[in-house]
Amino acid sequence: MYSKARQYGCSPLRPAFTLVELLVVMGVLALMSSMVLVGLASAAEQARVARTRGQIQKIHELLMTRWDDYRYRRVEPSKTGNVRDRQRARVDKIRELMRMEMPCRLEDIQYGSGTNGAVSGNEPALWNRYQRAVNTRAGGIGSWTTSFDDSECLYMILESIQDGETNGLDYFKASEIGDTDGDGMSEILDAWGTPIRFLRWAPGYAGVRSNLHRNDQPDPFDPLNVRDGKLTDSSGNYLHFPLYPLVVSAGPDQALDIVLRFTGSSAMKGTVVPSTNYPVPNNPYVSLASADATGSQLAGLQFGTEGDANGNGVDEYYDNISNHALVISGNAN
């Protein structure tokens, strides 16, 4: 016997979702999808951080092989003055070699050894190599921009380092090398595609943010403190404490907020400055004079100081990734 529904040609009634139920299910699926996407994005960001940490650790290890050699580097001894004068001359010569062989700005390559007379007329072979590289790739110093010149100097340093049969650049993939400012000079890029920055001397990068710069110890390159003649300040901190290269990535926000370069027309504190505002002699602990600061908030600071370096009113350095903060063998407190 047919039901009335079949009798009149209608399908029998079946259970179904209401519109409200469908909307609830779609909302739950959308929420779960967004949670998965957030989790994936977070995992991807952490992977970028880990990759950049690995890059910076490898760069640090490569640089330190050359850095440590300067402690025992032979230089032409001074034959004039007393013992202290001769020791001061040696410190200046070592720092002059460090400036030219481990440059961190274009002025390091622009000005040779005659700049302060420390090793006058005897530029090291590495400095001449960098000069040739700049001439070939950028078309000369005049065509080389200052946007990422520190990163580009780092690239050339790594290019000049041999680790056995391996060149320093062999540790980096092709995707980790680029020319972001288009001046013909290559940079090492972090996982966000931003150049990894470099400072040979960064006295401002001290304190809790650094496991390397300890102002309670003397400078191993100037153990007798012959450069300035005053060992500690009124608080007992060493005026010339150990300095190591700073290799740093701006991290996820790609904002560095570190003092990397001085600009202005006046001389820096305690120095005689040529037309490009380059400090002479090679004083790693030089500070900004007021007129050299890009904004009054930088006056009196040193290279590598973290703070509102870009003058936007916000400290953006907290997510930076540096070799000073990494746990590297021989680098922990």
TrEMBL record:
Pfam families: N_methyl. It comes from the Bacteria. InterPro entries: N_methyl_site, Pilin-like. SUPFAM superfamilies: Pili subunits (SSF54523). This is Prepilin-type N-terminal cleavage/methylation domain-containing protein. It comes from Bremerella cremea.
